[in-house]
Amino acid sequence: MKLITANKRAYHDYEIHETFEAGIALKGDEVKSIRNKNVLINDAFATVHDGVVMLINCHISAYSHAYSKVDTSRQSRPLLLHKREINRLIGAISRRGLTLIPLKLYFNDRGYLKVELGLAKHKNAVDKKQSLKERDIKRETAREIKSLKN
After folding, report:
1. Residue ranges of the domains in the chain?
2. What is the pTM (predicted TM-score) of this model?
């Protein structure tokens, strides 16, 4: 697995319940641009339109050596998922009020571009502070255990 980019902010702003792996339908020279790591997924999210999961607001810069110079950097891109996964996502989004957030963009072992989607619920300020507090406590206890071992 060759990691292209990760959305670190998603783990801070959202509580991730479940993850899915999906392919992306790309056009033209977008893959070459992604291989050069000219992609941003920080503001991106996914929605379901007419039974198709679409990745919205994912910025893929135009490839510098491309023949056509049409700007398609912010267009919506369809994600490739099985029908039963799409139905499961539709149910979770509509019933529980969850959102789909891209967490990672990577090339798998076979060389296909994949995106890891997280089924997430947005955290409020109190939850963010609580998770920071828990992380600090874990870090301090790990330090103390390490110092006791030495």
Report:
1. 2-123
2. 0.78
